[in-house]
């Protein structure tokens, strides 16, 4: 159920973000197929991997089948114009919350790696997911965490109560390095 919610959320964001791109820019997007890599897509479209990452705001080389990528600067200009008009119409509303942030991994003994909302963290180690108290931050919310980036509130835990979050970090050593921090996060409405 959680996995479906995340995929639907991503699909909505992609369809809204790219709806004007396809019609205005022609063939300036690419739908990722199973087995594709950023390098192969870049080579095929005579662009660099860095350009693809920049145009699509990717922080890693991980892509997923059915993901729609911008493959030209025309798509970026058209998409940016569409986003700018939406932004001026309605500012991105959020609330700030000061929380204690710790980290967790999916590789602990007895852990399934499946979040409460159904995200498989073992199969998606680059997913930006946080564990929250749903009474404070609703599950499915988009959240910005300083030092971590934008994430989805996709999990909850018995130790996550009140103004506390757990950020998912796939590497146990890096999760331990995260430690415990007090940060002010943005929860987007």
UniProtKB/TrEMBL annotation:
Residues 1-24 form the signal peptide. Keywords: Signal. GO terms for molecular function: hydrolase activity, hydrolyzing O-glycosyl compounds. It holds the Pfam family LysM. GO terms for cellular component: outer membrane. It comes from the Bacteria. InterPro entries: 3D_dom, LysM, LysM_dom_sf, Resuscitation_pf_RpfB, RlpA-like_sf. One of its GO terms (biological process) is peptidoglycan turnover. Residues 28-71 form the LysM domain. This is 3D (Asp-Asp-Asp) domain-containing protein. It comes from Cytobacillus oceanisediminis.
């Amino acid at each position: 159920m959680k996995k479906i919610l995340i995929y639907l959320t991503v699909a909505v964001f992609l369809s809204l973000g790219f709806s004007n791109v396809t019609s205005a820019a022609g063939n300036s997007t690419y739908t990722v197929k199973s087995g594709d890599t950023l390098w192969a897509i870049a080579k095929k479209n005579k662009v660099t991997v860095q350009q693809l990452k920049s145009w699509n705001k990717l922080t890693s080389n991980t892509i997923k089948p059915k993901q729609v990528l911008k493959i030209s600067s025309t798509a970026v200009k058209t998409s940016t114009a569409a986003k700018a008009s939406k932004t001026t119409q309605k500012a991105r509303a959020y609330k700030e919350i000061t929380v204690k942030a710790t980290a967790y991994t999916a590789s602990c003994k007895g852990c399934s790696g499946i979040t409460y909302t159904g995200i498989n963290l073992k199969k998606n180690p680059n997913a930006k997911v946080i564990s929250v108290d749903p009474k404070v931050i609703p599950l499915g919310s988009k959240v910005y965490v300083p030092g971590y980036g934008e994430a989805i509130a996709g999990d909850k835990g018995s130790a996550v109560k009140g103004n506390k979050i757990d950020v998912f970090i796939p590497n146990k050593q890096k999760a331990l390095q995260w430690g415990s921090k007090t940060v002010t996060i943005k929860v987007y409405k």
